[in-house]
Amino acid sequence: MRELHFKDNFWNTEIISTVGYDSIIQHLNDGKRTSTVITTYCSLTLLPLTLDVLTFGLSHLHLAQTMREEAKKLEDFREKQKEARKKVEQHMDALHKQKAAQYKKTADAKKTYEQKCRDKEEAEQNMNRNATTSSSKQQEKLYAKTQQAKQTAEEADRIYSHNVSLLGKLREEWLNEHVKACEFFEKQEVERISTLRNVVWTHLNHLSQQCVTSDELYEEVRKSLEQCNIQEDIEHFINLRRTGDKPPASVPYENFYNNQRSAPTRSLPTAGR
């Protein structure tokens, strides 16, 4: 059977008509459009190839969707851990501030206590030094000053001791909460590492499966390509859109006077497609 070619099947007997040429150009332009238009002009041997490529694309879309779902799960897990950790961190931050503030108060109370003790000792020494040389009135003043210094030192001692006690209680509370926080953070870290490990493992499994699927689909595409017959596709289009196999005849010269004697004048065809 003789092969069909464009040059033999897209003629028109009208010399000014371009319908055959236009049909070819339209077909070439259609090749750049949607797959629906393409399949109208493609031969049946190319239809399986189109479907195989579509299936391959869908498999990648499925993988992308699966990866998005895994990423969403990981993001939800991260947010859940973040919220839980935030509560513990806020509690520990408050304890750290209380502990630091109480430590400062205790240190200041200790300085005051030590200074008041020195003041008391100085007052006592001063009173003892002047016990034999001062008058009774002066001794009374020194005694009163010594007693005042003693009371002040005792009050400073009480305040210092109280702050040490408060600091000790805060320390015990902080130690207990610190242990709990460490255990909580360690548990979170175990969960985080385990989750990330599982996510990466699952992700690699998806990629491995996609490689297998891709290879199978590649093989189907190769099989479809083996069945592709270019000439059949060309002939399919020609049979579908052929405009004629005869070119227009040449336009003869017609002498006006000869035509006037023999027959009515024929006009040339008007321009148009």
Structure description:
By secondary structure, this protein is mainly alpha-helical. The protein has a domain at 44-228: Substrate Binding Domain Of Dnak, Chain:A, Domain 2 (Up-down Bundle). It has 7 helices and no strands. It has helices spanning 6-9, 19-30, 35-41, 47-129, 136-227, 230-241, 256-262. Helix 4 packs antiparallel against helix 5. The protein is rod-shaped, with a radius of gyration of 51 Å. The chain starts with 5 loop residues before the first helix and ends in an 11-residue tail after the last helix. Residues 34-47 have low confidence and may be disordered.
Structural features:
273 residues; mainly alpha; Substrate Binding Domain Of Dnak, Chain:A, Domain 2; 7 helices; 79% helix; rod-shaped; GMIP/FCHO2-like_FCH; AH/BAR_dom_sf; Proline-serine-threonine phosphatase interacting protein 2; coiled coil; F_BAR_dom
Topology, please?
Layout: H1 6-9, H2 19-30, H3 35-41, H4 47-129, H5 136-227, H6 230-241, H7 256-262
Helix pairs in contact: 4-5
Quick recap:
The chain is mainly alpha-helical and 273 residues long. The chain is 79% helix and 0% strand.
Please tally the β strands and state the result: 0
Question: What is the averaged pLDDT score?
Answer: 80
As for the CATH topology of the domain at 44-228, it is: Substrate Binding Domain Of Dnak, Chain:A, Domain 2
Look at the structure and name the CATH superfamily of the domain at 44-228: Arfaptin homology (AH) domain/BAR domain
Shape: rod-shaped
Strand content: under 5%
Q: Provide a count of the helices.
A: 7
Outline the low-pLDDT stretches: 34-47
The CATH level-2 architecture of the domain at 44-228 is identified as: Up-down Bundle
Helicity level = over 70%
Q: How is the main sheet built?
A: none
Task: Give, in order, the helices and strands.
Answer: HHHHHHH
Taking all Cα atoms into account, the compactness measure Rg is 51 Å
